[in-house]
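Entry: TetR/AcrR family transcriptional regulator
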Amino acid sequence: MGRRGRKKGADGEKRRRLLLQAAATEFALHGYHETKISMIVEKANVTQPSFYLYFQSKEAIFQELVDMFQQQLIMFIKQSLLEEGLEKHTLEGEITERITRIFTFFQEQPQLTRIGFYMANESKVIKNQIAILIEQNLLEEQRNGYFRSDTDMHTVAESLVGIIERLTKTRLLNGLSKPEKLANEIVRLLLYGLKNET
């Protein structure tokens, strides 16, 4: 599903970006099967032959959107690893900030998130991949003494992906919660549990 020879220069890149944005909107709104190339080019205000200068097919542009989502999400997960030597009292804030970045990405790219996290056949693979990356981060952080050594980090990673997936769909993408609030609630739940200490 490679790209055909694309037009050179700023105009070509602008047209390509417009097509990707339009495709993301149409796929997120209508679903993969209902979206037609004619809908994408109309939304992007380009001709159908222009579409084929940049993408071989509807499948190719959809796949590029999925790949964009996957690459960006993996980058955020890799960057969320807590560095060594943090003070214990800063731990809650540091973790909250990293989860907030992920939710903010989802909020700023809602169509891409709907496509990559929920619609694409690869969404299950993407979630499995980020669960593995999160588990690797958690194991490293556990070795660095940030978390209890008797905690199964596989369970924590899988749970975290499930929580993020569900809250993104039910609270974030429909505007009921902000990234910071969701991240704060998740971190407080995972770090302190539900037990009332008073």
